[in-house]
């Protein structure tokens, strides 16, 4: 494991603007560092989202917000699809 690139999809770019203005910047940075090393590490409330065949994972920023991503192991890339609330 290790040395994954983390790429932000267009769907998450507005979320990043919100994170930069919030108190979640540090937590988001920690998640990015974990994703670069091992996107499957069981930390930060790591979970596989349903349905399982979608191969999407999430990690919690806090009780309301989470980072949703997929992993391409062949390319060693992590794609972030959202990084804000899934309740809004």
TrEMBL record:
Keywords: Endonuclease, Hydrolase, Nuclease, Toxin-antitoxin system. GO terms for molecular function: endonuclease activity; hydrolase activity. One of its GO terms (biological process) is negative regulation of DNA-templated transcription. It holds the Pfam family YoeB_toxin. Coiled coil: none annotated. InterPro entries: RelE/ParE_toxin_dom_sf, YoeB_toxin. SUPFAM superfamilies: RelE-like. Belongs to the YoeB family. This is Endoribonuclease YoeB. It comes from Staphylococcus pseudintermedius.
């Amino acid at each position: 494991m290790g040395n994954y690139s983390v790429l932000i999809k267009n769907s998450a770019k507005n979320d990043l603007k919100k994170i930069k203005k919030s108190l979640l910047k540090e937590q988001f940075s920690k998640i990015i560092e974990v994703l670069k090393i091992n996107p499957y590490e069981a930390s930060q409330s790591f979970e596989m989202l349903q349905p399982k065949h979608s191969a999407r994972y999430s990690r919690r920023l806090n009780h309301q917000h989470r980072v949703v991503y997929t992993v391409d192991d062949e390319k060693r890339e992590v794609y972030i699809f959202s990084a804000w609330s899934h309740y809004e």
